[in-house]
Target: Metal-dependent hydrolase
Amino acid sequence: MDPLTQGTLGAALPQSLSKSHTVAGAGLLGFLAGMAPDLDVLIRSSEDPLLFLEYHRQFTHSLIFIPLGGAICALVLHGLLGRRRGLAFHQTWLFCTLGYATHALLDACTTYGTMLLWPFSDERFAWNTISIIDPLFTLPVLLCVLLAWWLRKPSVARVGLVWALCYLGLGLYQREAAVEMGRELASSRGHIAEGLEAKPSFANILLWKTVYAHDGRYYVDAVRATWRPKVFAGNSVLKFDAQRDAPWLDLDSQQGRDIQRFRWFSNGYIALDPQHPNRVIDIRYSMLPHEIDPLWGIELDQQAGRWEHVKYVVSRDGGPDRATIFWEMLVSP
Model:
């Protein structure tokens, strides 16, 4: 999720469990601690462009790391904020730990993937119930956090938590409806849908991207679930096969290993970009939910040395036309 949402939910939980005289301090400490796990984005390398993919949402997001993460935040923030607000260290640690604890669980509700069980497992949990940015989720919780601070009433923060849980529950309901629509669409094509998933499109839980595999291809479509249900047919692309798509590639080279790292990050949803013959893409993400056009991928180089890494590429040029199309998909009859 975006930093504001992470901080907001991180503030709401300790506020809801605080007293009236500590609600301000609880909210501030929880807000900062709620954003802290994403400091792992600083772990990157100019030589290895995929290093940050391996470490983002890794150990700092593990459930077992929560008490330690809260303690680190408390050590940093107690002297700066906690003591000045009349809190004992154990109170600072509690509020920081509660704020820190919300982060990974909220991230796991998105589609990116979060290693909740590190170091025991490198599985990336993605429950696909909410977009990484969703104002309808964030703004009501933020309002409750600010009112709880202003009125010195922890009960108001509890209202924000109830809203958050209800919205995530609605996202789960919408996801299941979208999956069912995707299954019916595949059946209408005579396909046996393998690994069918539905993922919320940007900033809403109404319009969903569905992805499934059949006969060596990935099929990408969009569906509007529950409210005026509608299918927006997309396209398909062959699954990536190194022997077919990059026969020149030595799989034991660094580029070959980087493909496997990118495959793990993408949960296997990789294909060769139809527009760029040497680019391997993650088909889970696109500006429009029924498109294959990727937000990111890796660029292969036939002239690269054995130990040279791939190039990580990002494409997020949506343009006004795509924004208009996206809006029409949301509201069209």
The two ends are 30 Å apart (CA to CA). Residues 3-171 form one domain.
